[in-house]
């Protein structure tokens, strides 16, 4: 019997990791903020790298490390580093590469949070960004300055699903000693492995397809040794750490990403073809359609499909979009993407809210535009829901 006092037993009983000759089939969640050392000299051995050991979970934890190993394997890279959100990953990626006085050339159609980082936050540290049309290579080259360090692009853009020509952009970047950063969130590692096309860094909001179940916020950077070393130091200091529990959920999501992406892509292609021939739909943006101006670039940049994201314009502008969105029954209005359920969002009221209608209409984000994150349900049920909603127009 444990003779210690109640308070002592409460603190210490049941706190040792059980010994087992068998292994758990799935790695456990190491919900520990810190690790214990068996003797004093072990501290020196661990800090000097003579003995491998975890110290403190802001620096490293087995759960996030396993996730990093998995994503590095999916994209065939040297390694990866996971963070508590996609924005945490993006912020670290920039801070690891630039200093005051440096310059970034970024695509003008950026995820909203990234735009705010580049447009509003980084200038406070003396880092400025030029936003240009990455479909126009001359414009990209013309924006490069002597102090430019990074070209920043998204594999598939939001909300018009434009595909970036990563191989060509990598050549442009490297001939000028710049880094090419690619936000690969919309593509997922199944469709695109940017490092294999010459990019220096692949970034994911793991909140999206990597996790895939709309129940985690996480991010990850996939890169080469030199960069990862710097990013690890920056991340440890700034601290946007991923929790062991969330890392475990993303890793579980990854187990089915092959199957999920296959179905997301097949469903999206079929829904895009259905919408394209619908009389109330004026335009469909999906790189897998023969009619898409991005089909050729997509064919040399993406493998295994064209993604689960599409957008389309309905007749009647805002009223038309409202009628369709409010009439959908199974498909919910959700301002995010990449979960197993089909969802819609309205770019004009969410990601592009700050831009006046007249201005965003010029580049194709009018009020009749609806974005769809196509889920993995049976395609006939998805089509039927859009069919009955479009019939209300
Ligand atoms: C969601 C998203 C982000 C930001 O990721 P969070 O996990 O929300 O911080 C960045 N880029 C793209 C393309 C995204 O869709």
How does the helix and strand content classify structurally?
alpha/beta
Oligomer: single chain
Cα Rg: 23 Å
Span of the ends, CA to CA: 75 Å
User: Strand-and-helix sequence, N→C?
Assistant: HHHEHEHEHEHEHEEHHHEHEHEEHEH
Q: On the 0-100 scale, what is the average pLDDT? A: 97
> What about the largest sheet?
7 strands, mixed
- Neighbour order of strands in the largest sheet: 1-7-6-5-4-2-3
What's the β-strand tally? 12
- Low-confidence blocks of residues: none
Keywords summarizing the entry:
binds pyridoxal-5'-phosphate, 393 residues, alpha/beta, 5-stranded mixed beta sheet, globular, 15 helices
Overview of this protein structure:
This protein is of the alpha/beta class and 393 residues long. It is built from 15 helices and 12 strands. The chain has helices at residues 6-12, 41-47, 62-74, 86-95, 112-121, 137-143, 166-175, 188-191, 225-238, 244-254, 257-276, 295-301, 317-327, 357-362, 379-390, and strands at residues 79-83, 103-107, 128-132, 148-154, 179-183, 201-205, 219-223, 281-285, 309-314, 332-333, 343-345, 369-373. The chain has a 7-stranded mixed beta sheet with strand order 1-7-6-5-4-2-3, with helices on both faces. A 5-stranded mixed beta sheet has the order 8-9-12-11-10. Strand 5 (179-183), helix 8 and strand 6 form a beta-alpha-beta unit. The longest helix is centred in the C-terminal third of the chain and has 20 residues, at 257-276. The structure holds pyridoxal-5'-phosphate.
